[in-house]
Amino acid sequence: MCGVVTLGSPHLAPLAVHPLVRLQVETLGRLGTLGAPGLFRRSCLDGECCADFRERLASELPPGVGFVSVYSRSDGIVEWRACLDPCADEHVEISASHCGMAVSPAAWRAVAAALERLGDETPGRRAKPARSGHQHRRAAEVPAA
């Protein structure tokens, strides 16, 4: 009845991003550490500041919460392997850029299929993938609406 569907999210390594994106993130962290208002500090990336967040991100979701990770090998921003969280019930590969996922029909079909499956589940039970066990699919396998 509930679940999480992510698009191009590097669950396994949140900083597994293009070097220029990482440089921007680290620069903002340094500016925050120097006192620039409204910016996070460098310690939020790897210090105690967000240790609880990183621990929770690395842990499994509670029972009854389904998890589908949609990713693209042609993402361009996020390292696609970092999206293959072993806790996910399903990984769905699409062909899209990172920003293009927001307007990708394949991504929309993958999300719709995941939400339909999650909505079909009995409350309190974890959503099951379409086939038994952990699965990987390409978007072409996602049924068209």
The averaged pLDDT comes out at 85
Main sheet strand line-up: 1-2-3-4
**In sequence order, what are the helices and strands, one letter per element?**
EHHHEEHE
Largest sheet: 4 strands, parallel
Low-confidence runs: 124-132
Total number of helical segments?
4
Global geometry? globular
Tell me roughly what share of residues is in helical segments: 25-40%
Structural class: alpha/beta
Provide the β-strand percentage band: 15-25%
Distance between the termini: 21 Å
Question: Rounded to an integer, what's the Rg over CA atoms?
Answer: 17 Å
3D architecture notes:
With 145 residues, this protein is an alpha/beta fold. Helix content is 30%, strand content 16%. The relative contact order is 0.20. The chain has a four-stranded parallel β-sheet with strand order 1-2-3-4, with helices on one face. It is built from four helices and four strands. The longest helix has 16 residues, at 105-120. The protein has helices at residues 19-33, 43-46, 51-58, 105-120, and strands at 2-7, 65-72, 90-94, 135-138.
